[in-house]
Structure formats: C-alpha cells, structure tokens
Design goal:
Shape: elongated
Number of helices: 18
Order of helices and strands: HHHHHHHHHHHHHHHHEEHEHEE
Number of strands: 5
CATH architecture of the largest domain: Alpha Horseshoe
Number of domains: 3
Amino acid sequence: MIRKSIVAQGLLVAALILTTGLAQRAAAQAQSSQPTYTIPEYNAFEAANAEKDPSTQIKLLDDFVAKFPKSTLMPYVYELYYPAYYKLKDYAKTIEYADKVVALGDKVDALVRLQAIQARVLSFSQAFNAKAPDAHDQLVKQRDASDLGAKLLADLPKPAKQTTMTDADWEKQKKPGLALFYSAAGSADIGLKDYAAAIPEFKSALTNNPNEAVNWYQMGVSYLQSTPPDYMDGFWSLARAINLKIPGDAKVKDYLKKQILAYEQPGCDTSVDAQLNELLQLAGTTGERPATYTIPSAADLTKIRQASNILSLISDLSAGGDKAKMTWLALCNAQFPEVVGKIIDVTPGDGYVDFMVFTGATDDEIQKATTANMDVRVETAAPAGGATPAESAAPAASATPGQTPAGPQPDVLRLQKDDGIRFAGTVSSFDPNPFLLHWTDVKVDPTIIPAKQEEGKHHRVSTKR
C-alpha cells in the first residue's frame, strides 16, 4: 500500500562522524603498523582519493585493484568505492562495497563501519528486487546489517574532543540514526514476513523518533499481520500514522476502516465511521494506546444479536451510552420477522406511507400508548420506471412475515390510526431523542389488512409473538 523509503529519514549518522581524511588515517596507520605498501601504491591511492568525479574515481580505483590486488591499503580503497557508486546511483554496487568495509570487522573502527552500514541501508530500497532469486537472502543481510548499525551506534562513546557536549546531548544526537537503523531492520522483517520480529524494531525506532508516521504505519501492519493478530494495537498504530500525516493518508484511512469492518463485521458499514473518528481523535493526543481502549469483535456482536429482540433493541438504544453503541453496531440493518404494535398516526407520501407505530411488551401497554417509538415506512407503489423483476415475480399476497419484501402494498392504505399492525422489516436508523426507530424494506402481514368493506373499522392485532 505504501512503500517505505528509508532515504526519507535522511543521512543522519554522518552528523555524528567527525573523522580525519582517508589519506591521513592511512598515513597514521603506516606509522603505527609499518605497512608494506610501496610509494607507487600510495601515490595511486592518493590520486583516487583526490578525484572529485565519481566515474573517474571508480576507474582509478579499478586500476589500483588491478595493479595492487593484495595491497594493505585495500580497506581504504573500499571506503572510496561505495560513496562513488552512491553518487552515481548505482545502489547495488554501493551495497557490495559497503559490505566489504563492514566485513573487515574490528580491523576498522566503529565509525567507519557505521558510515558503510548507513550507505547500504539507504541504498537498499533502491536496489532490492522482491522477485530476485536471492531476495530472501538480501532481506536477511539488510536486517542483520541494520541491527549491527543500531548496536554500533548505541555503543559509540562520545569523542574525547567533544568536551563541551554533555553525555545526555550525545545520546540525544544518536537518536535519529538509531531510528533509521531500527526502522530499516523492521522493514526487512516485514519483507521476510516475520511480523513478530518487526514489531519491536519499529517500537525501538519510535522510541528514538516518536513522530515518524511511516514507522507507525509499518508497525500497525505488523500487528495486524501477526499470528494471532493484535487488532487493538494495529488499529491504534494506523490511526497514529494518519494523524501524523503519512503520505497517502486517505488510502491508509480507508485501509484502517476496512480492517475494522473485517474485525467487527457490524450490521452496517456506516456505523464504523463514528468509531473511526473517535479512534483518530484519541490517537491524536497520545502515542501509547490506553489499556481501556477497545472495540467489539465479530464474536461480541454475534452474542448481542443472539440475545436481542425488538423490545431489547428499543430499550438499549433508548438508554444511550456505550450499550446503545454496541447494540446498534450489532443490529443496524438487522431484519426482524415479526413486529406488532398500534398505529399512532398515518402520513401518506408519494408511493409510500409512513406509519407512526408504538410497540411494547404487553397488549395493554400498546393499547394505552399515545406516542410512537417506530417509524414504519411501507411502499405503496413501484418506484419510477416500474417494479424490479424480483418484485414482479412475487405477488404481495404470497409473502409472509420474515420474507424479503415482495413489492409495493397499496392495500396498506386501508390501515388507519389506532389500528393494529404486524410486519417484517429492516431497522435502518434511529433518532435518540425523542426516540424513534426507523424501518425500511417493510412487509405488512396481509392478513391484518382490512378488506374494503371493513374500511373505517378499527382492528386490533394480538401482541402474542
């Protein structure tokens, strides 16, 4: 979805590295260890070291290697190769020669290896081909090199000449570089599909740079792809990435919504919008997910559906609060096969009629009601363009409560105020105050609709379900 560019985090280790030039270090080593290189070797190395054009410099280095393949100056030659290739954007060669420097181990100091590791880390995303036969090995090497870079940098002592810098400032100066290395290791772990290993890498990266949106995103993906998934931390991490304005934040937000929908499987997709907005608001104020933050799973909502009926639905929604939210997540767009009540008012419309209805627990409660708690909309005519083939194929008289609505029911216009009503339908929305539950896809039981000769007479409907 979003390809991470480690380069975007910048050349950070270089700010820490205040070393002398290669020629000076080579000369110093010559004095201390009495190397066996010759004057022609040294002059050839100096010529390559002084060259500013990377293409010409690489040619001089190639000539040096061809003439002096066993020179003791070879480590310094490797140190010239990889920056030249980096300038030419030959990232594969950059990695090749950076690795040669790193492979020297303790033969070179930590600063030299850190520079080489940084170059290979920054080059990897440009050079890596996921379809290459050795892609797995490439990722392993990138992860291991990045972890080594983090260790070397974490252990790097403050230079003796930095007399005005406090130890705390020195450790603070390391943080961007540490974030870079940990992030690179985590990205390699994702490539290896080792999501459990990627999570602590991104945590370490964010400890050193808490506002890096891409790391939050990568960690969120790792949580969700782990076995088993950690949904709450995954959702939270993605929300943090969105709040920190990750590139392509609209796509990340859409991805997060889809993940929540898959986890919850609510009655209607739009009910997740409020949850998503609440999550984004919470995640914008803190980095760590509060232990109290959670959202219901599909299993939680299934339990609510199994334990609910129309009366408990109305009771829960009327009460408001978290209970109402949970109940509506579970039962939005739910179909009820049989609901009974008394018509409080009738409002005909163009091709439909709205019955304002009250339902309750007992017949006595229903008959005494004067205020509706349901808005039951029934289609009385086909929409413009005529009935759909499915509606035309199923006569209204053949339908029974609990079935998918078969089409318009013009006969329901004979129902009037104070009549009883029995219907099947889908709950589509509700108004919290004053409470009113809205129904669509309604099919009135045709057996309770009065015949024409009985029009004007009130008909009670039993509340027995």
